[in-house]
Amino acid sequence: MQSARRLPRAWRTPGGAAQRLALYALLVAGAAAFALPFLWMVSTAFKPPWQVMIFPPQWIPAEIWWPNFTDSWGALDFGVFYRNTIFVTAMNIAGTILSTSLVAFAFARLRFRGRGPLFILLLSTMMLPSQVTLIPLYVLFSRLGWINTFLPLIAPVWLAGGPTGAFNVFLLRQFFLTIPREMDDAAKIDGAGYLDIYARLVMPMSAPALGIIAIFTFTNNWNDFFNPLIYINTTDRYTVALALRFYQTRLDVQMGPLMAQSLVALVPVLALFFFAQKRYVQGIVITGVKG
Amino acid sequence: MLHGARTRHNGIASRGGPRLSQRAREEIAAYLFISPWLIGFLIFTLGAMVFSLGLSFTKTDLLTSIRFTGLDNYLALWDDRFVRQALKVTTLYTFTTVPVGTALALGIAVLLNQNVAVQGLFRTIYYLPSVVSGVAVGILWQWIYHPEFGLINAMLAAIGIDGPRWLFSREWALPALILMSLWGVGGSMLIFLAGLQSVPTELYDASHVDGANAWRRFRHVTIPMLTPTIFFNLVLSIIGSYQVFTNAYVMTQGGPGSATLMLVLLLYRVAFEQFKFGYASAIAWLLFGIIMVFTLLVIRSASFWVYYAGEERT
What's the structural domain count of chain B? Predict the structure, then answer.
């Protein structure tokens, strides 16, 4: 609304008009530069093989070449990889939501000895690069017989850990603090325990914050490459990221199918973004971190 | 906080009584609630850190032998040309992508904040690349950098420039990774845009009255109000940038030669390809130390350039 009122005035003076033109020229050029890689990917994914390795490149596929999508699915069973990735991602969304909210609830709502120092300890773990604990965890998980299972990818997350566990606790605590305490007291008078207050009162009211966490957990797990690379070693357990890497290093790899598979791998993340764009943007702004 | 006095009083009065006091029940409940994190922290963080520090003083493949070697690993880091190269490459990467990326993100945010029509559309286009990451993106950019048939060299050729061999060139492989990282500045851009939109308009109005031009308003109003956001973003970017792995692994394998040998890639190789777990642990602590130093430096420097509203500056 505001822009509609102010825009014409900016255009009225000759200097203003030139400035506006320069501004839009810059923005459009920049937007083109940011969009081109995606367009290049889509273009290659739909091109027939003979049209890929030519110079100068042709943007429009001479014909839509579906085998890029269908053939590679047959050679490597991407269905399994998607099932694996969906399993790990779903487990970790559930684990993050459950564990970080329980912990955040205590830090936001309950009084206990050591609360301040423990919270600072939790925050300070955010600075610790995961590489420091990588080797001990690898040793631990191999002793437990967990190598080549999904457990090393899942267990830490269910204990409010993983790369973003501490941060999610912090985020949720801040959100829980905004829910009025009088409601707790009212519920307590009605005989509700802490678990009731958590499950029936605080959690339902925190849907926006939980949604943000679910979205970022989805994106992080879907894109994760390092952890599967360390812990998974047979193709039947591969995640999509590992499978793409495996496919990329094959000698007979073709650019068309490779781009097609990469595109398919990105579609869930992009779809989620368009589906939940408002919440996404909100999440970035609230948390101050990139997904 | 509100009923703190009351509960504390109850807690002390009835300790040791037959029924648990309200205060004691709350404490027990609290520790049950935080127990997932507490257990995870003790095992996966604290326990693992102690173990990792211990390992860094040993020579071990974790299967056949383990031998205490004191500071040998740390002394060896100093002479290891791969470690030196990885330090150089990762530092160069960090101290180009972080400032350039921050400046670019800020620039885009400022442009988008000028009452632009279809701001939402522009915002989406600039932000979208930062949503995606990982192997698929690495593969895409490898194709974009293809020396003969890639997008970038085709565009360079169109304006008469014979493009370099990018990922196959010792000189251009690292710049290629840096350039690629700028594609993902959308996240920072969004944070800055939100920061810009929260700058009180009275400040701009006041500077208008004082006759400040656009540049002076930007320099003396916008930037100071945005410094807390920039500061926070810088810290996170430096920490994240030192841990870069996937792109180097997927796109260049650290090459050609060791031109893009990032620190975490080196650590991965030493641990999981050469099975030198003691030495790899020492590299991990080196990485931690570097991240700590730069984080503390940025935090210490904050008082010189970060402006917090409502705080007196001298």
Answer: 2
Structural domains present in chain A: 2-70 (no CATH), 76-287 (1.10.3720.10)
- Domain presence at residue B68: no
Model confidence pLDDT, tens digit, residues A84-110: 999 999 999 999 999 999 999 999 999
Residues B244, B286: one domain?
yes
Q: Which CATH number characterizes residue B183's domain?
A: 1.10.3720.10
Give the gap in angstroms from C-alpha B155 to the nearest C-alpha of chain A: 9
- pLDDT interval class at B7 (50, 70, 90): very low
A11 to chain B nearest CA, in Å?
12
Give yes or no: residues B181 and B38 share one domain: no
Q: Which of residues 236-255 of B touch A (CB under 8 A)?
A: 236, 239, 242-243, 245-246, 249-250
| A100-104, A112-116, B55-59, B222-226: least confidently modelled range | B222-226
Rounded CA-CA distance A1/B117 in Å is 11
Q: In this complex, is the C-beta atom of B188 within 8 Å of any C-beta atom belonging to chain A?
A: yes
Q: How confident is the model at residue A74 (pLDDT cuts 50, 70, 90)?
A: low
Pick among B1, B12, B20, B33 to test the A interface (most A CBs inside 10 A): B33
Q: Which run of H or of E encompasses B226?
A: helix B223-242
Same domain, yes or no: B146 and B203: yes
pLDDT class of B202 with cuts at 50, 70, 90: confident
**Structure pTM?**
0.87
Question: Mean pLDDT score of chain A, rounded to an integer?
Answer: 86
Q: Tell me: pLDDT of B10 over 50.
A: no
The percent of residues above 90 in pLDDT, for chain A, comes to 44
Kindly state the average pLDDT of the residues B22-27.
88
